Structures are given as structure tokens and as C-alpha cells.
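Model it.
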Amino acid sequence: MLIYEDLVSHFEGALLTQLRGHNNDGGFLEMWVPDPDPLKSLINMAESAEAFGQNAFDIQIQQSTLDPARFPELKEGLAGLASVSMRLEGAAIVLSISEIGG
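Modeled.
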């Protein structure tokens, strides 16, 4: 399972130390660039997965990063691109993004 905050931290750290290939170890994440708005960032991630031919992924994100009340916004932003479901696990949200591109 991907952990959103770790991905952003890794990207930002690699940005300072690498000229290219900031997300080489993440497959479809190679094409992903995080956005300051985590909602837009997650939509960008699903678009990267679609471009890479990946049809699903799970990601954990802290509620302090993305308020669960924004889930309908995320669902709307992914409409036509992917399906998304959410479950709460303590202080985290686990998002299952599936049927990407379908």
C-alpha cells in the first residue's frame, strides 16, 4: 500500500538531490508530480496510473492531510477516470482507487 505523506516527502527530497527520475522506484509514480492540494495530487496520481496502464492502487493518507469530508469532491474529480472507495483506519484514510481508465 502506498503512503501519501511518504511519497510526497520522498519526491521533495529527491527533487533537491536528483536532476531526473524523482520517482523511479514507483512505477506509475514516475509520471506523478504532487500538488499542494492533496485532492488534486490524488487525481494526478490516478491520471499517472492510467497513462502507465495500471488499473488500481491503494493509498493511505492522514486525515490531517485530507479531511474525509472532501471524499465527495475526490469522487467527483475522479468521475470518468476511476472508481474510489474510502475506509477510515484510526487517524488515516485508506483509499482504493480502481477501474482506472475503464
